[in-house]
Amino acid sequence: MSVKETLNEGLKRGYEITITAAELEATVDGKLKEAQPEVEMKGFRKGKVPMAMMKKQFGPKVLGEAMQESVDGAMNKHLEESGDRPAMQPEMKMANEDWKEGDDVVVTVSYEALPEVPEVDFSGIKLEKMVVKADDESVDEALTSLAATAQNFEDRKKGSKAKDGDQVVFDFLGKVDGEAFEGGAAEGHALVLGSGQFIPGFEEGLVGVKAGDEINVDVTFPEQYNAEHLAGKAAVFECKIHNVLEPKAAEINDEMAKQFGAEDLAGLKGQISEKLEEEYAGASRAVTKRGLLDALDKKVSFELPPSLVEAEAGQIAHQLWHEDNPEVEGHDHPEIETTKEHTKLAERRVKLGLLLAEIGQKAEVQVSDAEFTQAVMNQARQYGDQARQFFEFVQQNPQMQQQIRAPLFEDKVVDHVLEAASLKEKEVSKDDLQKAVEALEDE
């Protein structure tokens, strides 16, 4: 077996791997001898089938396996000896396409090697960490918002008309073609207008009603309604209005605080203050991380594998196209061309990705099983009743596992670099932090 270099330009590599017919035959014989003790064939006892018959029966299949194993073995040995790390899966082709049994096997291999990533002196990186304290005004704003969610309803002045957001207490009876239908009636039902609880058109029909009114609301059930016998049908709801109530925000006091699990108002304020500062810290970290990545991008330069840049640019273009065309699902759309802007962003992402990976590897950064499991559980909560199915899907899908591990690994590498960088805290207002976050989104 021999490996001959045919290309070495920049990161591009090319090789020709030759496996002699004798080497291939020896590998096939070895595989057959290894299997011989377990082989049974009519007319022969187990383990006594002659090698000639073994070759005739199993030779072609074993030959294919031997060819693949020999090529893979030669490639792995070459990568180990050369230290090359292919940027993407190497491309392999049979050079002698008219190959027949008894000929040498010649395979051409080409790939782009990952570049040598230079060392970086992190101590030379100077960054600011924005620190925001939760002031009384911010806590009071949050309290007011909580009070709105804990709202109660009070009777409107007699004769007042119902508005969006009001609660209407009423009896109703629904009919299709003059006949009442199952599930279409209730007494003393409380409905907040604009909540979308009823089918389209119903709540709009109650806007303007007064206590004591008796009205009919005409609606049409949606074509995709879950009850097939009502789907697409016109209906009339006979309604008797008992009360029209307006929303009133809860009074901010100890009683309201208890509704949110706090012992008293002071305790609730403390919880809000902690939560706000957690949110500020998360936003501040995003700003600091972007500053670090910008600094690394400027500080480090090395050759990038064109294949990785091209693939990343294609993904960026595809993602942005779908953001601009949200109505299109799947991949049934025209070919999406990449632009210079896509390529420029792809170059930054590829460079930083390779750099962070190299830093993490040298620093032996690891994502623990506990950290990974916690991240999966956090995502699973978003799926509600289907959380278990999501968890099982992740367990059976290595690609999904990698998608979850990647940002965890990146954050740990960022923390590692920030520990060595010069990081100065600067207390700012929440408005200054908000502007910095918005600037990230605009880039």
Number of β-strand runs: 11
| Alpha-carbon Rg, integer | 35 Å
Mean pLDDT: 90
- Contiguous uncertain segments of 5+ residues: none
Task: State the helicity in percent bands.
Answer: 40-55%
Q: In what range is the share of β-strand residues?
A: 15-25%
- Summing up helix and strand content along with how strands pair, one would put the structural category as alpha+beta
Give the name of the CATH architecture of the largest domain: Orthogonal Bundle
**What is the fold-level CATH name, i.e. the topology of the largest domain?**
Trigger factor, domain 2
CATH homology group of the largest domain: Trigger factor, C-terminal domain
Question: What is the CATH class name of the largest domain?
Answer: Mainly Alpha
Give, in order, the helices and strands.
EEHHEEEHEEEHEEHHHHHHHEH
Distance between the termini: 53 Å
Q: Compute the number of helices.
A: 12
> Mind describing the biggest β-sheet?
5 strands, antiparallel
Oligomer: single chain
When the domains are counted, the total is 3
